[in-house]
Design goal:
about 25% strand; alpha+beta; 8-stranded mixed beta sheet
Length: about 450
């Protein structure tokens, strides 16, 4: 028996949820349930896995459980980018290797999500707006943006190089030196998308929210899970809890938990929007996501600032810490949009992401009756979605050529023990911040 000691914290701060209408969550698990399948986690991976299991096994019963509510977990707290290209997270370019593989996986995920949005009328501001990968400094443009553009050209991917006043006209700010615009990225409200997927599950999937798994035991024939007010006995399980997988006894010493902070302004009024040139919605990823600022201008005319990604083994943030982050985000906003002095920050929240040392996902079969779709390496919309879909296909022995692409990404490599791990991560982060200091 494994006791699940570390559970997600619900701090009720998610700005993407706060701007949506209230939602009635599904009832918590009560009593005892026997089922063919249990999926743990109602983020992108868990939702995709449950839907694909229902498609593959329409006569089977499927339970989907989560510690909190759809849209309130990490999947509903990200920046709302569905990225279709290799995504540079730090200063290294390792992920540009195998670019075709990444694109096949990401685009399959986006095609799947777009079909769900269309079929079920999910109102999540789904927008084929593309994205800008931008640098503040000429050095950042030269060392990161230009090599990225050359890689795209080698892949024969469409792109537009934009700089100076032309870039400022598109973004409503002159803060950035140059950017590569690519058309394939999807923008959305991630909480609305996650909610919509959870509320339109197939008939043979039962969702129980507010049902944290507090104990788990595994053998070859059955998985037994305990929640505060109920128990589950399942023949098979798919684990889709991202960075919480070690709490369930899997990938111990192989996953790195980080916290990422984001803020949303209030909506701009007509005059304020006009000052920015009546621009359309856009999304921007920075030359270095650890040091610099991810930004969006949303369809409802809010500006998103995401900055300050840091190692966070406790997965806890205080309200005072968030207030400090909000002050920092307001300063960053003022630097980028000095023409909007009366616009303030309305919501600030924390989302927790998971990395592996070698950038590999926690995907595949863990035991004869257990599969996993965890560790999205901070590209959750696409990587978690495709991981969940393929985990369900793998579990059902359904042929899918993309499984080979997923397996080729490898497994999370072992980490050094703490406190050496902590020292190493902090040193690497300090190096990233120093190296990208001109991009802040």
């Amino acid at each position: 028996m494994t006791a699940i000691a570390q559970l997600p914290q619900d701090d009720n701060t998610n700005g993407w949820s706060a701007i949506l209408p209230k939602r009635q969550p599904k009832p918590p698990l009560t009593g005892h349930r026997d089922t063919d399948w249990v999926v743990v986690g109602v983020g992108y991976a868990g939702l995709a896995a449950a839907r694909r299991l229902a498609e593959n096994r329409p006569q089977d019963s499927i339970l989907l459980v989560d510690a909190h509510e759809a849209g309130e977990n990490a999947s509903g707290r990200n920046s709302g980018f569905g990225i279709d290209l290799p995504h540079i997270v730090g200063s290294a370019h390792d992920e540009l290797e195998g670019s075709y593989r990444f694109m096949r996986l990401a685009r399959a995920a986006l095609a799947y999500l777009e079909q769900q949005v269309q079929d079920h009328g999910i109102d999540c501001d789904w927008s084929r707006a593309g994205k800008y990968h931008a640098a503040v400094s000429p050095a950042g443009a030269r060392t990161i943006i230009e090599p990225f553009a050359r890689e795209l050209e080698a892949l024969k991917e469409p792109l537009t190089w934009i700089e100076g006043t032309a870039l400022a006209a598109r973004l409503g700010t002159s803060h950035f030196t140059a950017a590569v615009y690519t058309p394939g990225c999807i923008l959305m409200n991630p909480a609305a998308l996650t909610r919509g997927l959870a509320d339109t599950l197939p008939a043979n999937v039962t969702l129980h929210e507010r049902s944290p798994v507090i104990e788990a035991s595994y053998d070859r024939d059955v998985v037994s899970l305990k929640a505060p007010n109920g128990t589950i006995r399942a023949a098979k399980m798919i684990l889709a809890v991202n960075g919480y997988a070690p709490a369930f006894g899997f990938f111990t010493g192989r996953l790195l938990p980080f916290a990422a902070h984001a803020s949303l302004t209030r909506p701009l009024d007509e005059d304020e929007h006009a000052r920015l040139g009546n621009i359309a919605d856009w999304g921007l990823t920075p030359a270095n996501a650890f040091a610099a600022v991810t930004m969006r201008f949303t369809r409802d005319k809010r500006i998103l600032i995401r900055q300050n990604i840091h190692y966070c083994p406790t997965r806890r943030q205080s309200d005072e810490r968030r207030r400090q982050i909000a002050r920092d985000h307001l300063r960053l906003f003022r630097e980028r949009f000095p023409s909007l002095p009366k616009v303030g920050i309305e919501h600030t929240w924390t989302g927790h992401v998971c990395f592996s040392r070698n950038g590999a996902p926690g995907f595949g079969q863990l035991a004869p009756n257990i599969w996993s779709a965890v560790c999205c390496n901070a590209v959750g919309v696409t990587k978690s979605t495709i991981s969940g879909l393929l985990a369900a296909d793998l579990a059902c022995k359904r042929d899918n050529a993309l499984i080979a692409d997923m397996e080729a990404l490898g497994k999370p490599s072992a980490l050094p023990p703490r406190p050496f791990l902590d020292l190493g991560v902090h040193a690497r982060m300090a190096w990233e911040l120093w190296q990208a200091r001109a991009e802040r």
